[in-house]
Amino acid sequence: MSRLDDFLNRITMYRLVLDYLLLLVGVAVAFSALGSLSFNPLGLLFSALFLVAVSWAANEVFARVYHVAVNNESVIISALVLSLIITPARNLYDLPFFFWAAVWAAAGKFILAFHKKHLFNPAALAVFLTAVFLGRSASWWVGSAFMFFPVLLGGWLIVRKTQREEMVGAFFLAAVLTILALNFVNGPDLVTLLSKTFLETPLLFFGFVMLTEPLTTPLTKNLRLIYGALTGFLFAPQLHFGAVYFLPEQALLLGNIFSFLVSSKDRLVLTLKERIPLGTDVYDFVFTGRGKFNYTAGQYLEWTLGHGSPDSRGVRRYFTLASSPTENDLRLGVKFAENGSSFKKALLNLSSGGEISASSLAGDFTLPRDPNTKLAFLAGGIGITPFRSMIKSLLDMADRRNVVMVYAEKEGRDFLYRDIFSAAQNLLGLKTVYSSGRFGQDLIRREIPDYKERLFYLSGPRAMVDSFQKILLDLRVAKDRIKTDFFPGF
Questions:
Q1: What is the 8-class DSSP label of residue 272?
Q2: Strand, coil or helix: what is 324?
Q3: Hey, which of 71, 122, 334, 477 has its CA 20 to 30 A from 443?
C-alpha cells in the first residue's frame, strides 16, 4: 500500500474536505494579494470568516430547536464552500447577502430533512434561495484558471477517498458532451471550448466537492451513475428551457431530488436485545423491532445513535448487516479500537433495551442471481460480516452454491461465526480456508485453483481489500469479476 493510500485510510472524509477547502481559501487569498484574482485579499478572508461565524451560530440555534447534534466540521465545510462560490464582500452592504446565505444553508439541514438527514446540498440550496428572494446568486468564482491545479489535485484525493470515480466520471462526461453538442454549430473550436470549460467554469469544483456530498447522493452504484450523468447534463451553462437557463446550483438541486426519490425511505427504530462478545474487542449486537423490513443478504444500513458530545464523525455510521433476511432479528458485528469514535463508545455502552435507529438501506454487494455462478469470498477481519449474512441465508434457504471462502485474520485468533461456516461446510459443501499467515498469490493458486472461473467478493478494512484486489489483478483475474464491499463510512 502506498503512503498516499495509507494517508487516505487514516483521515476522515470530513477532515479531508475541510483541509482541502481551507487550502483553497488560502491559495485564493495569496493569488488576490498578487493581483491574479481581482479581489481584495482581506475582503476575501473576512467574507470566509463571517460565513463561518454566522453558519456556526445558525447551526447551534437550529440544533437546539430540533434537538439534533451538530457536526462542527460539516458546518465549517458549508461555510467555506459558500466563500468559494460567492463573490467576496466589497463593503458592509454585502453582508446581509452573506448572512442569509449562511442562515439558509444551515436551515436546509434541519428543515428540509428526512429522517434527520438533509435532502439538498446546503450551499447549493442557500445560493438558490438568495437568487429567488434577494436577487443575488453565486458567481462560482472558484472556477478560474488560477484555481485550476489546486482544485484538481485536492479534488482527486476526495474522489479517491470516497471511491466515487464512476459517478464523478459520468458527471464530467455528460457535462462535456452536452456542452459540445450545444456549441456544435456556432461555438468556438474544440480546443478553445474544452479549455474554457475546464478553466473558466466551476466544473471541477462542482464535480469534486458539491456532487460528492455524501448525504445527498444515491447509495447504489448504478443509481450514482445516473445521478452523475443527469446532473452533468443539467450543468451545461448553455442548457435552457425557453428563457430559463440552468445555473449550477439548480442542476445539483434537481439531482438531489432524483437521489431522494430513488433512495430507500425505510426507517427502523430498533431495541438492543443482547450484546455478544465474539473475540478481542469484537461484539455482535442483536436488535429486535425489524417488523416487515425486507433486505438482501450483504446490504448495509445507516445507523443513527444520538449521544452526548459527539466527535467530528458525528452520530451516524454505515454498518453491513451480519444477519440473514431469514432471521427475525438484525445483527451487527462491530470491532472496537482503544481510541475509537464517540459513536462506537456510545454503541458499546448501549444497555439492553436501548434504542437505535437505522435507515437508507443500500448496497450492491449481494449474491448473483444465477445460482450456478462459481464464487470466491475473500474476507479480512471484521469484513466477514456480509459473508455471515450471505452464508446464513444460503443455509436457511438450502441454497447449495459453489463457494470457496478465504478468511484472513492478522491475529489468527478472532475467526468469527465459525459455527455458521462449519454448518455450511457440512450441509452445503462450503469450503472455508482460515489464514493467519501471509496472504498472497500462492494461497489463491493452492486453495482456489479455478480462480479465473470465479466471481470474487472482497470485504474487510480498506487497506486489506486493496491488497486482495492487487493480488487478484496480478493473477490476471478480470476486473469485472471482482466485487468490493464499500460504503460511505464517513
A1: E
A2: coil
A3: 334
